[in-house]
Amino acid sequence: MSIDKRILAGFVIILIIVFAAGIKYAEFKQIRSADAEKLSLNIVQEEPGDNLGEMDIEAAAEPEIKAYITGAVKNPGVYTLPAAARVFEAIELACPCEDAELKYVEMARILHDEETIYVPSKGEIDEGQVPQFYSAAASNKNGQININRATAEELAASLNGIGPTLAQRIIDYRENNGAFQSIEEIKNVSGIGDKRYEDIKDKIVVR
Questions:
Q1: Both 26 and 38 in a single domain?
Q2: Which residues have a Cβ under 8 Å from the Cβ of 70 and sit 6 or more positions away?
Q3: Beta bridge mates, 118
Q4: With contact defined as beta carbons under 8 Å apart, do 73 and 90 qualify?
Q5: Residues 117 and 142 grouped into a single domain
Q6: How many domains is the chain partitioned into structurally?
Q7: I need a labelling partner for 112 at 20 to 30 A (CA). Which of 10, 18, 97, 153 fits?
Q8: What are the tens digits of pLDDT across the range 45-57?
Q9: Domain boundary among 99, 114, 137
Q10: Is 71 helix (H, G, I), strand (E, B) or coil?
């Protein structure tokens, strides 16, 4: 009878151990399941495809311009570029010829939509001569010059009282502050006051 009690006691102890182990295993399994769920959630939230989609949308929203490149280039034609692209970027796409005289081209200037860039050849311009290259959209049919698209040379040549220094200030203002919204805004350029504005206001446009 005493043997049976010992067996029974041992059996009860085994049951208690098994029951406790089962509880611990259930708790461990629950913790692992929760960790796995958190990890899965983080992966979904940080999936790179979502970020790429946003970048593609932003890139697609960026405005574009078209410019015609001609002259001493291997591939003259109309090129599509991002807004605020520089002249040198368009010329690189058109592949300048070996005899292209790039020193007479405003390579660092910001391009404007519908603009024509002419690249001269070596020997085409005499040394000492001041070159004047006109964009197709720099002036309108009434002879008014677009101060948002004209080069410094065009401004100096077309507007009375505007020399090379003032013309460059107009270009600098435009590049630093964006396109002129009205012709009156040109008075914000240092050196252009009311009197000088009155002299040129009928000869300039912003569109």
A1: yes
A2: 76, 116, 117, 118, 119
A3: 70
A4: no
A5: no
A6: 3
A7: 97
A8: 444 444 545 544 4
A9: 137
A10: strand
